[in-house]
Amino acid sequence: MAESAGPRGARWLWPLLALPGVVWLALLFVAPLYVVVAILFGGVDPILRQPVPVWNPADWDFTQFRYVWDHVVGPQPFFRAALVRTVVYVGLASALCLLVAYPVAYFTARFSGRWKGPLLFALIAPFWISYMMRMLAWVNLLQADGLLNRALSAGGFFDVHTAWLNGRPSTVVLGLVYGYVPYMILPLFAGLDRIPVATLEAARDLGASRWQTFRRVTWPLSRPAVVVSLLVTSLPMLGDYFTNDLLSGSPNTSMIGNLINNSVLTPGQTGQAGAFVMLILLVSVVPMLLYVRSTRTGVDVQS
Amino acid sequence: MAGEPARRAPFTGRSAVGRRSLLRAGLAGLAAPGVATLLQACGGGSSSSGNPSGAETIPAPDNPVRWPLTNDVIKSGLKPERGSTLRVYNYADYLSPRFLKDFEEKYGVDIRLSTFNDADEALTKIASEQLAFDVYFPSYDSLGRLIQADLLRPLNQDYITNRGNLWPRLRDPWYDRGSRYTVPYTVYSTGIGWRTDMIDTDVAGLTNPYDVLWNTQYANNTAVLDDWHTCMAMVLLRNGIYDINTTDPTHIAMVREQLLDMRRTMSPSVTIDMYTELPGKKYGLCQMWSGDAINLPYYLPEKTPVEVLRFWFPENGRGEVDNDLCVCLAQGKNPVAAHFFLNDLLDNQVAETNFAYTGYQPPLLKFTPDSLVADGYVPENLATAVVREKDFDVGFPLLQLPAAADVAWHQVWQEFKAGG
Asked: Are B42 and B178 in the same domain?
């Protein structure tokens, strides 16, 4: 009996351990997602134009989704620009984040020595200040007579009046980079710090140069961390709206998050916000699949 | 006249099916034919009866409305329950913190202030009825919907003893005959604000000052109000169309064209934060509410002279003029304290405290254009931001729109803001 108790216990143990995660997913992901879908395909209160969710799929009305879809791909595609803009901004910002974060994380993991603790502390420090406060700080720095223009004017030598905050895509992209780069550094650091030093030493002992060691050992081993860090930053960027609101405010830099925010706050258009959420979800599935693939590759390599 | 700009609640009651058919019609295109289809699909025009039940009731200066009593009136002679929490729902920076503190001390209640950005957002949250707000500051264009949805509590006039302080025209206003649900809070106009150290043009001296918002010399240096009705009405006024609540599809199509042109050529900010962003030099020229203009000096950096600020509103008064209201919500748990709150807003001293903080002018007899300037509340160069009672004789209020027109207007605004 004692011999068979072990395997039977293990059979129940793993599902039990997974239970909290399953409950969490059901309560905080599946259920809310269904609410979004029920609103998207639901009705509108006749007086106040508030959304009326329809729970039964048999009664769903696809008008709101079709409205959004037709204005993405139809003859009057006025939503399309914001969607394309979002992909471009998020792509650029993620790439820039990686350019900034990887060397920082690499240095911290490999060369910081006894400064690793303080450096990690410094990397986490931005999390203590709210994202909005950090963006508001940039508003002051970037305004017409802000610090940046004053610095560029070199003490009045040049006449600089660049309007950084008036609908510039570059300002929005750099705002995204600034806001989200800490979220990328930490997972990258965790991934790079886990690479065994012995592996790197072995590469050097076998005659590889520093660059070859990085290219053939460090980079491949850190790839899963890169994918995770890109996901951790790009997914929230996809729904971001207040970076644009604060640093631009112009419709010419609207992203899909702005479309969602506008729709949610406009009675009668809440269902359209659900349609945009669904579009984001569909777009996010691609990187998620990439991530799953990369982690499976990692498991395969380990085994 | 009256109205309420920029803080606007769009809508009109209609069935969900009707709304969907409107959207379908809208898919045909938002150009004039599309708008025409849309409007014809649901009909336009306003009703004139003072009673709901089915048809839309849209108050207007030439169509005053006496609303039915949809909820019970509280008894007279009650006192606010000490220790209770009064929940107030309002725009940010639209009540003096000092007044709130004084009210708390005077009546022994706690005030919890929640804020919203625009009337659309506010209605969304109020309609949930989960937040139990006691006091709300709507515009009169959403009044009908609030009453139809049974969201308002009729006022017991015994508590509103300060009503005599009001301008006579607002003691029995057209949007709420008998003042059954509302007390007026502020009056304001909508015009153009600018800084002379950033804008060379004398905007007020232009033949058509609205044109300056399309002057590419100032591209990337402008802003318009993030309020669909106020902003779109400005386009109508620019073109000499004074029916700023139009249901005419060709007018709406024209507004669409000019707004998209403005977005393309000027890249304006779309915001309601002009009162901080103009002093902060984020831009030098913007559409603006008069109350925000009066508030501008308080947000200027110390070394910047107040004289750089300007505000234009048509000298003949033919522009947007409105007033905001205060109401008791039926969902609130403290109706007695809410009545005292509304009454205190009409107190001369309280109104002065609020005006000094918000810049939005109370429509009380005590405050005249001359006294506001003489008492230093408004600098000479911003005297044009003071609302005169006579402005309501010739100005234009923003009204609730019929359902079909409301959808058409919103679609144009949606396209403008989507940046596509």
From this structure: yes
Q: Are residues B32 and B160 in the same domain?
A: yes
Burial of A163 (0-12, 13-18, 19+ CB in 10 A): buried
Q: Is B220 on the interface with A (CB under 8 A)?
A: yes
Determine which helix (DSSP H) or strand (DSSP E) holds B271, and give its type and residue range: strand B269-271
Q: Which residues contact B301 (CB under 8 A, 6 or more apart)?
A: B279
Q: Higher model confidence: residue A243 or residue A144?
A: A243
Q: How many residues are present in chain A? A: 303
Our CA-based measurement puts residue A263 at a distance from the nearest CA of chain B, in whole angstroms, of: 8
Residue B195 makes CB contacts below 8 A (sequence gap 6+) with B278, B281, B284, B285, B308, B309, B310
Q: Where are the alpha helices (DSSP H) in B176-282?
A: 228-238, 249-266, 274-277
A117-174 pLDDT, tens digit each: 898 888 888 878 888 888 888 988 998 888 898 899 887 788 787 888 888 999 999 9
Considering the entire predicted model, what is its pTM?
0.84
| Sign of the CA dihedral running B89, B90, B93, B97 | negative
- The answer, yes or no, to whether residue B31 has pLDDT greater than 80, is no
Q: Scanning the structure block, which residue is given the tokens 């030598």?
A: A157
Domain A80-297: give its CATH architecture: Orthogonal Bundle (1.10)
Interface check B124 vs A, CB under 8 A: yes
**Closest approach of A150 to chain B, Cα-based (Å):** 14
Q: Domain spans of chain A? A: 80-297
Q: How far apart are the first and last CA of chain B?
A: 37
Q: Is residue B412 in a domain? A: yes
Overall average pLDDT of the B90-99 stretch: 94
Question: CB–CB of A46 and B420 under 8 A?
Answer: no
- How many Cα atoms are found within 13 Å in the side-chain-facing hemisphere of B128? 10
DSSP code of residue B63: B
Number of structural domains, chain B?
2
Cα A226 from Cα B136, distance rounded (Å): 49
B151-186 tens-digit pLDDT: 999 999 999 999 999 999 999 999 999 999 999 999
**Tens digits of per-residue pLDDT, A252-296?**
999 999 999 999 888 889 999 999 999 988 888 877 787 777 676
User: Which two three-digit tokens encode residue A259?
Assistant: 């479309």
Please give, rounded to a whole number of angstroms, the shortest distance from the CA of A110 to a CA of chain B.
Answer: 43
Instruction: Report in angstroms the alpha-carbon separations of A14 from A18, A19, B315.
Output: 6, 9, 78
**Comparing C-alpha atoms, which of A189, A190, A181, A222 is closest to residue A98?**
A181
DSSP B150: T
Residue B289 φ/ψ, nearest 5 degrees:
-80, 145
Q: What is the ipTM, given to two decimal places?
A: 0.85
Q: Does B148 touch chain A (CB under 8 A)?
A: yes
